[in-house]
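Continuing the batch. This is chain 6 of the set; chains 1 through 5 are on the previous pages. Same settings as before, nothing changed between runs. Recording input and output for traceability.
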Amino acid sequence: MKVWIASLMFMACIGVTGALHAAPVDPAAEAGNQDEGSNETGGEEATGTHSWDAPAIKVEGKQPALKEEELIGSNEQPRWTSARRWNRTRTYVIPEGEIEFEFWHRLTVPRRSNHDSEEVDNRFLLEVEFGLPLRFQLDIYLQLSKQGSEGNFGVSAGKFEVRWAPFKWGFIYTNPTLYLEYTMENGEPDALEGKILLGDKIIDGLHWGVNFVFEHVLGGDHDNIYAITAGISYTVIDSFFSIGLETENEFVDTAEDRGDFVNEHLLGPSIQIKPLPQMHVNIVAYAGIGGHSPAFRTWVVIGWEF
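Output for chain 6:
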């Protein structure tokens, strides 16, 4: 029942998103925006309301070499932070007023030596993200799963996530952001997850992110899950194509065996392609390292900013 409630809320969010962006534009306001965007030489600066065409914030003495490094919005954050840079490592919050939809697919192929199920596991996620005032972000997920060639395909969980960045971008190096997520599982105990998100740039075009994760399952064996994810990326073509490396490291114990961890380690290359200004495609191909890790896992994330 609780997963169907999450499904209805997810569909309601989709409807709200469509209604917001179907609202008529005030011609007078639009004309005012265009006037404000004109520069002194008669040229036109960006006057849009999306992350890719929002006007850049001018910082005296600091001219970024790449468009994706320009600061935008009330959070004064670089454009590259307005879309997911890595598949599993998050950074900061999206700009205030931004609404984005993402489709995820995770494919996991286990090792035979794990002595567990050797069935391939497919997981799908549908996500809507809302950039809110005061550096908050709200995300709502719907998770669908299928295990093996004969497993049932259906809704397996609903998730609600809130992020908060205490400071504007650049106030503190690493831009710490707090993350809290509640998962309502279908037929399994719910779970509560907290994260600390860190991320910044080394030089223009070279970015990094690290997440520290703790999750507790609210029932059953009362699993505790500790994880560290990290990613680094280098921009090959400004605002279009980047390459990188990502890793996930997870340690799980139960109430009866605290400190006796089952661990999983993954490492692999990743890319991000932005075929359209409002679209991003992220792909990572992990190889498992160690006996409890799967043979390999892939993530594909396709996002669209409304």
